[in-house]
């Protein structure tokens, strides 16, 4: 859908006459001189590598949709193309990283997150794991270390302000290597746990200070069990 959007925007601007129905024709158009979002212009690999993924997966698209030509064995997903006479296997790890990469890219294009140097390293590592799919050169980006961050935020008035800059600074100071972290925010009123939120690594906000309320950020709210209503 990312490339469908790129083509539609180029059609609206008159750069191309129409968006073709056939996916083979769409692939040919992607190799033309298209107008691209600023993110793709400033970081070209965020366009070339997903485009390669799109093109390499194309032979299996219709097979999966119309013929159910895929199988699962253990943690291996296999696609087959009767037309091309080829197959492609993805491990559960590769599927996970493909989803993570695409989700982060969509959020960046929607201006929900910024692809800074730190995030870019994560995405480059994902792309290295997906080399068998896109077929392009590796970045040789090692997996950043993964750590869990739990942040307790005391109540201030009716809000729970969280200093996320302090979290990022502490993580950078504590670990010398590249680090990926998820974030669990605990809203505390005295010794009582009022609410809890969870942010996956690609969802951690890049703002300095984030204000939480008991009923805010519902997409990230985690339900409390009875034993969690007081601080351990």
Q: Which descriptors would you attach to this protein?
A:
single chain, 8 helices, 23% strand, elongated
Strand content: 15-25%
> How would you spell out the order of helices and strands?
HHHHEEEHHHEEHEEE
In total, how many beta strands?
8
Radius of gyration: 22 Å
Based on helices, strands and strand pairing, what is the structural class? alpha+beta
Which residues sit in consecutive blocks of at least 5 with pLDDT less than 50? none
Q: What proportion of the residues is helical, as a percent range?
A: 40-55%
The outline comes out as elongated
Largest sheet: 3 strands, antiparallel
- What is the strand arrangement across the widest sheet? 1-2-3
**How many helices does DSSP assign?**
8
Mean pLDDT: 90
Q: How many discrete domains?
A: 2
Distance between the termini: 46 Å
